[in-house]
């Protein structure tokens, strides 16, 4: 059946409204986008690492989660879901469970790229039949916008502040999607909120229904941490994709595939400019930093084109 | 008919796990508990159990997976020691506060550093306030019996808390001794089916586990948890009674050995109790009224019952196989003193730190403690209450 956004939006939501995330936050959009791909009638257990999403959707005695949900700690969503999935296999084998269950763990970039990296790597390597979704907003937002290894170069965060002798974060981003792809699991993809959400939907569907471990990395902007006008979220995502800051691609059964090549690749400055966290770059003294940034983006994009067979070496 | 065997403490635990046939085991190797997941994965490989074995990449993930699994509705267990238990530390509290009846076979080993693989109690004593029930075992038989009983205690509706069943690394985990095993069918009947009330994979009623808890509720949640721990004491005794019916072996909250008329006594945990009993017998032969109390349940701490058992003693040594660096003794010492505080005629109490990092403790060492106690009795002077047993001084003597 062809993808139809309107029809998808008419399905009952698995994450109820009334949660406490900021207006315009990318994280719940990611959650809804992913969970909409779970077939109606299929049961779901959601796991979540500590972070904005968790503390804002399950505050005792209220939960926004209509499916079963488990939060354990900050660094162990991967291992926790491994345990849930193992329990399912055991109980199913003993005939104690009849229905089909799906398992999806959500973690922020901090809980995924950094402190939960080992737990995620272990879960993926062991091949649990689950999806791990990183909602990447490029910093530890819940504790007040500290840098993570997903924070883009030069971003001003509360632990990489720009100052008289600092131009923000001095390191580039860790490429987690590629690292997980190199675990050689059945499905890995990178996506964001783009156009009619078809890319996110189809990748979620594959990740959920392909047997074995799957990983989705979703760029999920945080208007507070990035400092752009809340209503511009779709524009921010589009710029991330069109500047090749956040390429849309997937690795299915070892085959790398680029899902979108911008007709006109925009300069990285277009993505950086609207965001307050990069404000310090747009002074006459710092022009060379934007050039340096552009080089890094170009190099990574070229490498990806090769990996995806769009270009040969 | 029970089965007579010769097994090490680790084999005994693995065997109990096989008989229980849990739904999920998630574990990571660390000396001296490594053999438990090794034996167990062989049972899995040979189809002797239906368990899902999750060979995780760390102990942190072992306990994290256990939390996920038990919350999902599966009977779940693991084994660890020392640094492994320390790495689990954060998640131990989460398991307990979520009221998840997970069982850990804890094979006691010194914590780093310096790194050391031998027995002391710094690992489990480090998690004594994490909300886990702690049951200690003198030998392989007790480890086996306690492990089976633990399951029935933790899953009891009035308890619903996790437990660690402890024994001394190498001394009992690796030493092969005679053991009496209970028939499979009897063990299975004893532990029964695990049918939790609320769990993630309940098809009729989804649930959310692990909320953000505000100051408006947190205190009450902790109070309820403490209530479960209080109940564990009563439940442990009920379970022990039932266990006696299938095994013929009696268990209480602690073991009192020649304590009734004792004037000098020691309180001790795990394998050194065996050595200490020899010392007691020897001194009894010399006409000295000595006795000992061996801890079984450390969490919850059966303070009233222990006070009742010790209040007639004139002088007492609490033996800690761990440091607490309080500069006044170890955790057992602190509990014993607190338990006896309300007694009108409390014994004089000294606290020994002994056997750290696997330092051998012989009958003579324990006898020297009793001699020290008799010295206090004779002179009426307690002297230093924070003592080290058989430690060399700076000159190496
Ligand atoms: C072991 C541990 N260390 C630190 C914290 C504090 N902490 C909670 S959430 C968080 C940051 C979360 O960042 P991320 O995973 O990116 O999610 P976000 O808040 O951005 O959604 C931190 C540092 C914690 N809860 N546990
Ligand atoms: S701080 Fe950012 S990530 Fe957190 S809820 Fe607000 S918008 Fe979302
Ligand atoms: Mg983040």
The number of helices of chain A is 12
How much helical structure, as a percent, in the residues of chain B? 40-55%
Number of helices of chain B: 13
From the alpha carbons, calculate the radius of gyration of chain A and give it in angstroms: 19 Å
Structural class of chain A: alpha/beta
Tally of structural domains of chain B: 2
How would you characterize this protein structure?
The complex is a heterodimer of chains A (313) and B (397). Chain A is 36% helix and 17% strand. In chain A, the strands form three sheets. Chain A has an eight-stranded mixed sheet with strand order 4-1-5-6-10-9-11-12, with helices on both faces. Chain A has a two-stranded antiparallel ribbon with strand order 2-3. Chain A has a two-stranded antiparallel sheet with strand order 7-8. In chain A, strand 11 (249-252) and strand 12 (255-258) form a beta hairpin. Chain A has twelve helices and twelve strands. The model of chain A has no long low-confidence stretch (mean pLDDT 97). The longest helix of chain A has 21 residues, at 287-307. Chain A is of the alpha/beta class. Chain B has 397 residues and is of the alpha/beta class. Chain B contains 13 helices and 16 strands. Chain B has helices at residues 9-20, 35-45, 59-72, 82-87, 89-97, 122-126, 140-154, 184-191, 218-247, 272-285, 303-310, 331-340, 363-379; strands spanning 3-7, 24-26, 52-54, 76-80, 103-108, 133-136, 163-168, 177-181, 208-209, 254-257, 264-269, 290-295, 297-299, 315-320, 348-353, 386-388. In chain B, the strands form three sheets. Chain B has a seven-stranded mixed sheet with strand order 3-2-4-5-7-6-13, with helices on both faces. In chain B, helix 10 (272-285) links the parallel strand 11 and strand 12. Chain B is globular, with a radius of gyration of 21 Å. The chains are: A alpha/beta (313), B alpha/beta (397). Chains A and B meet through strand 1, strand 2, strand 4, helix 4 and helix 6 of A and helix 3, helix 5 and strand 9 of B. The structure holds thiamine diphosphate, iron/sulfur cluster and magnesium ion. Residues 108-110, 137, 139-141 of chain A line the site of magnesium ion.
